[in-house]
Amino acid sequence: MPIYEYEHLGEGCEHGKSFELKQSIYSDKFSHCPYCGEKVKRLISLVSINTPKGNSDLKNLGFTKLVKRDDGIYENVTATGKESRIWDASKPETKPDLKSKISD
């Protein structure tokens, strides 16, 4: 469930000038503080998004990254175990083993 930030329009209460609440994304936003009843507004907060930084991060997360090297030739920069480092589109045996990386 998302955490929303609210700010009192007045002085605030024992929970401070601003506070956070977990609530469903489908719930209506609060117009009054659930603690003191004073009017509040919902703030727009910064979000944190973490994306893989490099090939090793992608590999650890189970992704396959292919980099085109020539016409129909790709390098599997996230190859693991028995996978071929080079994938030649005309040779099916060099295709990355995606089933070994995909799990429920």
Structural topology:
Layout: E1 3-8, E2 18-22, E3 40-42, H1 55-60, E4 66-70, E5 73-76, E6 86-88
Antiparallel strand pairs: 1-2, 1-3, 4-5, 5-6
Specify the overall morphology.
Answer: rod-shaped
Strand order of the largest sheet: 2-1-3
What gap, in angstroms, lies between the N and C termini?
A: 23 Å
Strand content: 25-35%
Radius of gyration in whole Å, from Cα? 25 Å
- Report the mean per-residue pLDDT as an integer: 86
Number of strands: 6
Count up the domains. 2
Percentage of residues in helical conformation = under 10%
The profile of the biggest β sheet is: 3 strands, antiparallel
Detailed description of the structure:
This protein is mainly beta. It folds into two domains: 3-42, no CATH class; 55-100, no CATH class. Helices cover 6% and strands 25% of the residues. It contains one helix and six strands, in the order βββαβββ. The protein has one helix at 55-60; strands at 3-8, 18-22, 40-42, 66-70, 73-76, 86-88. The strands form two sheets. Strands 2-1-3 form a three-stranded antiparallel beta sheet, with no helix packed on it. Strands 4-5-6 form a three-stranded antiparallel beta sheet, with no helix packed on it. A hairpin with a 2-residue loop joins strand 4 and strand 5 (73-76). The chain is rod-shaped, with a radius of gyration of 25 Å. The mean pLDDT is 86.
